[in-house]
Each structure stands twice: as C-alpha cells, then as structure tokens.
Design a protein that fits this description.
The protein is an alpha/beta fold. It has 14 helices and 17 strands. The chain has 2 domains: 167 residues, 3-Layer(aba) Sandwich (Rossmann fold); 196 residues, Rossmann fold (3-Layer(aba) Sandwich). The two termini are 13 Å apart.
Amino acid sequence: MGFAKASVRDAEVAGRRVLTRVDFNVPLAEGRVEDDMRIRAALPTIELLRERGAATVLVSHLGRPQGVDPALSMKPVGERLAELIGAEVAQSPEVVGGRAAELATGLDDGEVMLLENSRFEPGETGNDPELARRLAELADVYVDDAFGAAHRAHATTEGVAHLLPAYAGLLLEREVNELTGVVSSPRRPLVVVLGGAKISDKIAVIDRFLDLADEILIGGAMCFSFFRAKELATGDSLVEEQGVVLAGQALEKAERAGCELSLPVDLVIGDRLEASAQRRELDGVEVPDGWMGLDIGPRTAAAYGESIADAGTVLWNGPMGAFEIDAFAAGTRTVAEAVANAAGKSVVGGGDSVAALRQFGLAEGVDWLSTGGGASLELLEGKPLPGVEALLDA
C-alpha cells in the first residue's frame, strides 16, 4: 500500500513561495540547540525546494509556551539550520504580520526564512481559521514535513492545508510509508517491543498487533498493569490502575489470537526511583513491599534479545525501564543493542526509544528512526492523521 497523498516531488515550486511546516521542536540549552536530529531530518525537503528554485518559508512550534516566551524563540534553531545548509536563514520576529509578510515577499528563489514559534500565536493550537488565512497569504504552495505534529489539527498543520495546494514533504512521506509498511507488508516473524509507563498509551497498538504480529514483548512500568491483572504482587511499582482492566482484556485476547504476548520473567527492583537507590535483581516478578520494579531482569532481556534477533521485522516503541538511571538501564540497553543489530528490518517509533538508542550510541544501526512519538503511535493504531488527511490526494 503506497503513500496516497501528493508529494513535494510533484509540486511546481520554481519561482513560488512555499510555506513548509517542519518539526523543529528541539531541545535547547543555554540558547543553543542541544540535539539537531529533527532539523537534520527536514534537510532533504528543504534542499529539494532550494534546488528547484522555491522561496521557502519555514514554520514550526517549539515547546509549550503560554503566549510569547523569549526562551522558546526560534532564533537558535534558525542559527543551527543556517549552519547545516551553509546559507543565510532570514528570521521573522513574528509568525504572521507586517514584518513576516515583508520578509516572505522579499525572498529570492532558493532562499529560506523561518517564522517565529507558531505557538506564540494563540490561534495555532485551536486551528483558528483567521491565523490559517494569514499564514496562507505568505505563500503560493504548502508543504507539510512535520510528521511529529501530523496527529494535531492545528492552524499550521491542518488549517492552512485547505487554503493552498498542499503536498507531503519527503520526511512525512517516508515516515508514513515506513510505519504503515510494518502493518501492511512486514517480513515475518513480526516482533513488536512495547514499553513505557502507561498501558493506556499503548493499548490500541497492542490490540491491533495482537491480530498482526507473531510476538509482542512487554516491558517498562506498563508490565505491572498486566501483573496486577494476573493478581501478582507489584509492591510500590508504578501501576496505572485504569490500565489493569485493559491489561486483563489484552491477556484474554492474546489467548484467542495467534500472537504470543510475552511478559517479563524477572525484574530489577529498587527502593526508590533515584540514582542513589538500592538495587536488587529479582528472580521472578512478584515485587516485595517497599520496592519498585525499575527494569526488566537479565533473563527477560536475553530472551527478548533472542526474539528480536530472529525477527524478520522488529518494531520498538517504549523503554524497558528507567534507562536514564545507569543502575536500571541494562534491560533497555540489551533491547536497543538487539534492535540495532537485528538482521531483519528495524523500525523504532519515536520518543524515549530513540532517546535511548542515541544515549547508547546505537541509532545508526536502526533502519528507520521515527521523529514522531504520538504521531507514530496513532498511525500504528490505524487512526487518520489530520495533517496527512488534509493534503492533496496523489
């Protein structure tokens, strides 16, 4: 099943202004970009537009500002982008308005400008039609390359796409193809590795892949909802209470489905979620009072690693434990190493899993690292993404 939306490859952009929604929601430290992965991910689309003679007007959100917040200005992002493309990037002090329009009108073919943080405008998250209209006035064509924001119906992701000829950027197109390919045409066996804190965040993915995958490997704090559903002791572990019923339903469905739902068989526990915590390896999964499960154990990690090594396709979303703390990072590291070294196709669905791979220096070994956390989950669940649906059909 190929991508069903019109691609920037097919857009007439020479001599035209192209409003391009990118996902430059990157971490900043001391006024500089700390991690430029998302900026780099957008470079192929930006370079294509430059080479084809477009005047490119970039727009992105950054963080969650409550009104205008100088600490979340796009200025450091524009400076880093200029370094990466080796060309000046004009920076607008506003999202829309007289100065933004003046800079956009003055762009020559092949030049690039960056609007200020779209969330400085209160109408952005509310998908305000007036803000969308003012954005559309800046350009002749719209390109959406912000997969990480494609699940949000905002003015810059969905509203403006109805007002201009709207195309998918190269990153957005690749993201959709890679993630939907896991569902529609995986090489077998298909192994899905899911972790993180809340089963409610992942239950729709679990439910869908119980019908599609050969094996689902569960880790992270979400496993304690499953253990509670099986009436096992969880001690002081993080348990999402409303997730216990969901976990029980998933266990029942797994018994009927042809998919194996694997839970940890041993754990690493601590007396608190801190670097100074006491650490114990638990040969089993019943957590004593006063302790909390903070990682999968070595036997579980080894078994999960073997399943991943034998996979034709592996999809990973969510860490196996509190990997930010060295004492509880081993399980996530073992899974990350297995995914990075997998002989089959490896796809990692954004968020903390990508952060873990980068922390361990393993990101280069993965076939596809998604830039979208929530967007990748919703796409894998089978939900339509507003930012994709609004684009022209192919």
